[in-house]
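Troubleshooting log. The previous run stalled partway through. Resubmitting the same three chains, unchanged.
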Amino acid sequence: MSGTKAGGGILDRSVGILFLTPSVGLLVVLLLGPFVYMVVISFTDLNFALPGHDGNFVGFDNYRHLMRDDPVFWSSFRTTLAFVFGVVSIEFLLGFALALLLFHHIRRRRVVLTLLLIPMMLAPVAVGLMWKLMLQGEFGMLTHYLRAIGLMGPQTALLGDYRLVLATVMAIDVWEWTPFVTLVVLAGLLALPREPFEAAIMDGAGPWRVFRDITVPLLRPIIALVLLLRGIDAFKEFDKVFILTGGGPGTATELLSIYTWRVNFRQWDLGYGAVSAFMVYLVVLILCAVFYKAVYWTEGSQKS
Amino acid sequence: MTVAFRDVRKVFPDGTVALDGFNLTFESGEFVVLLGPSGSGKTTACRILAGLEQASNGTVEVDGRDVTDLPPRARGMSMVFQNYALYAHKSVYDNIAYPLRVRGWARGEIDGRVRAVARLVQIETLLGRRPRQLSGGEAQRVAVARALVWEPSICLMDEPLSNLDAILRLQTRTQLKRLHTELGTTFVFVTHDQEEAMTLGTRIAVLKDGRLVQFDTPRTIYHRPATRFVAEFIGRPAMNTIDGTIANGRFEAGDFTLPAPGRADGPVTLGIRPEHIGLRRAAAPETISFRLDVIEVVEPDMLLFVERGDVHLVVRTEAAPEGLGHDTEVHLAFPEDRLHLFATRDGARLAQGVPPAP
Amino acid sequence: MSRPWRMVALAVLIMVLVVALTPYLWLIMTSLKTRLDALADNPVWLFTPTFEHYPKIFIDKGYLPLVMNSLVVATASTAISLAVGVPAAYVFARHDFPGKEDLFFFFLTTRMAPPISVVVPMFLMFTYVGLIDTRLSVILAHSTFNLSLVVWMMRGFFADIPREIDEAAQMDGHTRAGMFLCVLLPLAAPGMAATAVLCFILSWNEFLYAFILVAFEGRTLTVGIPGLVTPHGTLWGQVAAVAVVATLPIIVFTFLVQRHLVRGLTFGAVKG
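Second attempt completed without errors. Output:
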């Protein structure tokens, strides 16, 4: 599907350039620029808290420090990985099941779906706030009921207990983003052609076989899409954890983004903080490339 | 084994009545064609037989057993879909093997059977391919193979040839006929193409507006159509129909008149097929002259479009005399044993005693 | 769809809806409760609502400008992203050139860029040019992800318009630019509307960029929330009121744009 080659080739090209330049230019300045700058800073000792540290070149010192001497970074990295794997797998399973439920058994899908989407449409900061409210140690609504049914002791507060807080934060993320999985999987289900299913029924397959042999394989591109999108977004998580726990207690919920924020904007150690920021960017870029291959796949198989 | 639709009625949620009082009975081994224009209910009838749709009223019986409420896999039928419905993510081999795997056959048995049926429809070389690598004709044959691999007693086909080009359609038609003869499976074939129906079917069920109009052998349908609709639907070009009246033993439509001995007076529709109108070199007592309007050459035949007053006819003839052109006068003969008479009001057949072709 | 399964499905659905919606309802209720009701030991479900918190936070404590800031920032970043992104999307949909898919991938990465990674150098850059603590800095920051959203979504919408329309317009005498402005844009208008709403939502909900790039003056509504949560004595009624105002308009917008949500959130990969 190439562009029309009909007359006015030069005109086409200049229109193309004219239309593309502003956007490319804007993004180069606003994203590529900062990216390059970030890499540059990572090789300096820039630090707003210490005098004399105004950006002198220090080579790979920051990187060496990160690799060898910073257990906090790596603990934060592990926490983030646990967070990402945990929430993505649970959101995927729950969201998929919910999509199947809506697809097979529910009539007025549109209305129901819009209601279900509310958790993910709320500003993440607000989500953090409302759960903080419900889990508040003394008067929190959930705290009260959890204690009432004996799941929590009178002294425990979910957000204050370093053993439970990460799981709690993950549960809140599941609440917030499962609708996203449902939305996308449902769209995928609705787009599936009807005939292979009827053929499978005529071939004698029962409901479980149809699901396993037809539904899942046909949904593979969508599944890949959802897993990667959620994975990338979960890796970047900041807003609600920030307001829920600020990374605490201690560093129990200090995700990479929060760690990076702390180093840069609390300790003002910007040179070192740039390394951490770069690491986050790198992981996301790699996931992005994987995602693009999967999307290309989807578009490719849709085209054919 | 007898298959029967008894008073089947199907109303869709939006109110359309797809089938109304549909009754049909046929025996095993037949090649039954459900023929009709779009909206006639033929596909609905097929899907109700398959179990993919539920009848609103009435029952479906197979061998005396009421299968109306049974799911498709309990009915012993297979289906070939119009769009083939192959499993895009499986190989051709796996597509064909699927019904056997679902039924828990052993791998060795599956292999033998898949290859046998692939040979039958001549796709042995394609077993390793994926559906998207197949041409339309190949995909269609895979669909047929999949439907026959487990030797169902009844094989349903919903317009399986519609998506093929003309040449392929003819080839596949022959293949299907051969399959039917070799396997002896009961085929139920849905189509809107009357030529397909006439060549393939042992018996044709003509549907219109959700009802069965006629169920007969192709020969009978051709020579003794039960209604004007069937008469006009079968045959290409369609049968000529002339609205007129019978008075005093003669059929009259304007100044076109033919003897009609022993007929009651009243409005009738006269029908005669283009291939049965005789073309004479010169005027004769039994001929009627028409003005030739257009000639279409369809080798080895010719189609002559003629008119006389308000009466327009199409004549199909093999040997046409020289010197025919626009506005030429032609002399046509109308053999009495080739005439059909239908009631003008409801199109029902009136003529008795029109013998089948020699 | 057998009867008993239908009942089970319905029951599950109702439970899910309750879980999904109760937290938000609780927030709204908290914003309408007196301090006594809100802080009661046993959760209060039936109460006499009061609107006292809203004027207290928005007028007395001066949080109304924050609403204004959110509005301005969201509208502006949407407008810029559309103005710049729609033409670019058109080029991707209709033209071919070497490196096209690579450039498209570049646009994707900009959407995915981790805000925490971008904001660090951006903070420094904006400080040097004196843009820090202004609304413009946030508008520009938001444009980074909104722009690629526009390009990705609109590419799909333009691709949906058959090429014959372009050709018919050219036969009618339009120039390339004229064809784009007078024929394609109107046809793509519904898609643009949906994209615009989605951009607005994303910008309105955004926190990190606004939090870092602005200290006081240009604060958006989302940034106003953490400041009200203190270790000693958070005024829950008031902060809940802020959160409600920060979220309620979005609910309305969601209903409007729900049909195109899937396309926007999956970068056009799924049409929904």
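Takeaways: Residues 1-36 of chain A form one domain. The two ends of chain A are 12 Å apart (CA to CA).
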